[in-house]
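Re: your question from the hallway

Yes, I did run it. Sequences:
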Amino acid sequence: MSLKLDSTGNTAADHDGSVKSIKRHLKKELLTLKRNRILEEATELFFDQGYSGTTVDEIAARLQVTKPFIYSYFKNKEAILAAICETGISEALDVLRAVLAAKGSYRDQLIQTLWQVGDMVIVRQPCVVIYTREMKKLNPDDAQRILSKRSEFDQRIAKLIDDGVKAGEFAAGPHAMDAIWIGGLISWLPVWYSASGKLSKKDVLFGLVEAGLKLIGAGQLTDLEKAGLN
Amino acid sequence: MSLKLDSTGNTAADHDGSVKSIKRHLKKELLTLKRNRILEEATELFFDQGYSGTTVDEIAARLQVTKPFIYSYFKNKEAILAAICETGISEALDVLRAVLAAKGSYRDQLIQTLWQVGDMVIVRQPCVVIYTREMKKLNPDDAQRILSKRSEFDQRIAKLIDDGVKAGEFAAGPHAMDAIWIGGLISWLPVWYSASGKLSKKDVLFGLVEAGLKLIGAGQLTDLEKAGLN
DNA sequence: GACAAAATATACTCAACAGTAGATTTTAAT
DNA sequence: ATTAAAATCTACTGTTGAGTATATTTTGTC
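Structure:
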């Protein structure tokens, strides 16, 4: 039958015979909703069973739908994987851009970056884990596109550190690898988070920010700064 | 034809018609050698392409051998995976036991543990990575056996910390999670190591030891201690 | 309510791959 | 040299799963 949508039901409908444009709009929304539901279920399955260990039929079954349905939204199985992998990177990049666009000291920008991106990574944990695990199974085009976003991320962090050093906010010294280390810290957050199992998201994020600051020699997190993070 | 052995050739043969027991012995050695070569190639392939992404025929081809050959050494594909996964844990446990058996202060034992186990983990990188990636594909029996070794590892570390605290060598306080954190540090070493790509094994190991010491509040690594590590 | 178009399902194809039965070669001892 | 046993291969089976051609249902429009 029809695709199993979110538990929110959404029986809502503006029933008057209103203009086409509205209907078109609704339709488009429906399409992306369905696409997203496919990605949600696929993400959960890939996360639990791995990419190769998951069949397209399984994804379909979860949605109470059949295989060709999936194939009308994605060219092939690998396209689903690519979409999932891209989600994590894209959102991280969006968050980073937003943080860097806001004004503030470099120190503040770094703190915010770690906190916000860290938060996003924890929330999108499965995407990030799937990406690191299954990267090698992407076709070259997808791999390239995603990798270039990943590079932009690293470069922006490197520039932030560089600017901060020039402005005298961070300790001078060789920072060549720091951006990579910070990227690493963030990437491995999901593992730390789920491995410990007991720490709250907030605690983990505070830990991340403090580690990041130590890494580039920007000192401890002050109580005031702590209070500013929610 | 015959199994492609190590590049060392090994045409050596004590040619005299010596006693059976020697021949028997040689034969047994050959068997384990072959088994190990299968594991070596499988490890490389699983590491690069994942477990599901690797066929038994591929493993056979690498050894210039056929599939039934493999199946005469392993019950099935999953048994190969289990053997690989077990290698990492078993060797880590061996190293840990040896370190803990040697006398020395608790502080020294911790330093040695981190250094030696860390070294082993870097060397056996692929096994460790494969284990963390493919764990879920093991059958319950294998998973249980391996997990119990993993537990013994964690418990011994926990005990080391505990003893060290009681002896006043480590800072008192809640250490409930520290063993897990240390286990985590060690587990993620391969990723840090290969991700950075530029750091030497030694540098990474020094970093590990220092992180471990900080974690349990045992202070910095002294120059003397550094000198003692090779 | 009829009809075109869109959405979704049924029922298949084809290839890849784990695992095996039985033939063939190699080894080692007499 | 002969022969039994061990080692290894050839050639197969059965299944699974990605991807698709075609039928059916649903939706929207007149």
